[in-house]
Amino acid sequence: MRRRGLDFRRPVRKRFPNVVWWTVCGILVLVLIVVLSREGQTESKPTISRKPYRRDRIMEGVTVTDEMLSSNSVTRQLTDQISLAKAFVVIAKESNNLQFAWELSAQIRNSQALLSNAATRRTPLTVGESETAIRDMALLLYQAQQLHYDSATMLMRLRAKIQTLEEQMSSANEKSSKYGQIAAEEVPKSLYCLGVRLTTEWFGNPNLQKKHRERKQMDAKLKDNSMYHFCIFSDNILASSVVVNSTALNSKNPDKIVFHLVTDEINYAAMKAWFTVNSFRGVAVEVQKFEDFKWLNASYVPVLKQLQDSETQSYYFSGHNDDGRTPIKFRNPKYLSMLNHLRFYIPEVYPALKKVVFLDDDIVVQKDLSGLFSIDLNGNVNGAVETCMETFHRYHKYLNYSHPLIRSHFDPDACGWAFGMNVFDLVAWRKRNVTGIYHYWQERNVDRTLWKLGTLPPGLLTFYGLTEALDPSWHVLGLGYTNVDSQLIEKGAVLHFNGNSKPWLKIGIEKYKPLWEKYVDYSHPLLQQCNFH
Ligand SMILES: *[C@@H]1O[C@H](CO)[C@@H](O)[C@H](O)[C@H]1NC(C)=O
Ligand SMILES: *[C@@H]1O[C@H](CO)[C@@H](O)[C@H](O)[C@H]1NC(C)=O
Ligand SMILES: *[C@@H]1O[C@H](CO)[C@@H](O)[C@H](O)[C@H]1NC(C)=O
Ligand SMILES: *[C@@H]1O[C@H](CO)[C@@H](O)[C@H](O)[C@H]1NC(C)=O
């Protein structure tokens, strides 16, 4: 049911006159140049680790290793990696990054040698002997992504090649993929396609822009504190659409709902186009891009300041800085993404608002959420569902209790809670200077000794003693990595696909996908053209 049809081959260009096509390509190339130049230093030099990852290093502390070792066919993984790498070699050459092309080619030869050795001796490759090769290659492929080699522009230039890849990839059993993390982050080609189509639409269709301006006249709603305000920070159009659509469809009062979406420069036009073309039962949708926020600068925001620091850059982008002691997933630059950190600046993003419900983009809504806005937070800033039913989701699990600052401030047995569906009282937030508390901790963590990964640990520090526990049925977690009790799912107001198996990916957990897909209109012409399903 979910197999990609062969009509992906259908030539895309036919649908547009050549002039339009080239204009769009031009615009996208410009956008790409802007993006690359913003990321400046990091992107312009090859930041590839040449040091092979020794096995003993990998074994140390990597929680993903166990699941990695149980994967069933390393040969298939090697083959998949090789075909992907070959495409990237072509792109790297086209982009004149010869150094990177050379490194990819060397790694391809290395992996091919392994395969041919195994073929000659007629016994399958073992995990042990291919582990280093697979990991080194994964790192390169990941770098390629960071260089935007799989962005929409490149996708179009290499349409033919990518199509072949697509077919090869879909035959692979990705659930057993050793590189779940990387597979999970490779945004599917269809999503890129959707972004490109919508961007084309936006720039090519003045009516759309006009309609968008007209809708903006609902401006009054955007700052009206008698409305129900929701915010999403996302670069994923389809996921955001599902959040908005599912909230709207399950709401008793959709005309009282306002969605505030923040995305990035690349997805800005596409998001505006999507939310103008479609309507969601009268729900108001505002789209902004974080690049427009003047206050979001390195003199105010520690994460940005830390990113300018070259040591931090090499830690996240090259990977050999600490002798490989830190597992690769902890060094994922995704965790530096400003869209991820915006959750700590909600009062700055919405200076006029008093209460906002924050939603992650990997959730789906099943019930009316208006009740959230009348819950008494008892003077607290953050209303969240606690996660310490399982003993391991307590503070000591996320923070470094060898550090005196942590030991002296936080109870190791304090209950963790979840980001993804949070009620924020912005009045209390401003009064308690919560952004200041966040800055304090983020600045203390410049050497990453307090915590390593993500936004939850700084969240636990920031909202310590300022969090009100909500009824667990408001926010049901785990649909992206584990089995969740079916009664919990049924009763849940918000279902969260946290974990790697996002419902829009092929590696999504099949039995949970329908809960999300229900809110996707697969018959929509744009989705059809981009071969969703
Ligand atoms: C950076 O942000 C601060 C605090 O919001 C603001 O006062 C300052 O003007 C901003 N700087 C620039 C260069 O925009
Ligand atoms: C908020 O906290 C920051 C950092 O801790 C501090 O510099 C600032 O003065 C505080 N602001 C207020 C209004 O208390
Ligand atoms: C935890 O904190 C201690 C004390 O600052 C530090 O020596 C140690 O390296 C930290 N652990 C990690 C894993 O960062
Ligand atoms: C929203 O979900 C409904 C219900 O499944 C679906 O019919 C509709 O097409 C969706 N709207 C969009 C814009 O995806």
TrEMBL record:
Q: Which InterPro entries match?
A: GAUT, Glyco_trans_8, Nucleotide-diphossugar_trans
GO cellular component, as recorded: Golgi membrane
Cite the PANTHER family for this sequence: GALACTURONOSYLTRANSFERASE 10-RELATED, GALACTURONOSYLTRANSFERASE 4-RELATED
Query: Which controlled-vocabulary keywords does the entry list?
Result: Cell wall biogenesis/degradation, Glycosyltransferase, Golgi apparatus, Membrane, Transferase, Transmembrane, Transmembrane helix
What is the protein's membrane topology class?
Answer: Single-pass type II membrane protein
Q: Where in the cell is it found?
A: Golgi apparatus membrane
Which is an annotated GO molecular function term of this record?
A: polygalacturonate 4-alpha-galacturonosyltransferase activity
Q: What start-end ranges are recorded for coiled-coil regions in this protein?
A: none
| Recorded metabolic or biological pathway in which this protein acts | Glycan metabolism; pectin biosynthesis
Q: What class of enzyme is it?
A: transferase
Name of this protein: Hexosyltransferase
Q: Which organism is it from?
A: Gossypium arboreum (Tree cotton)
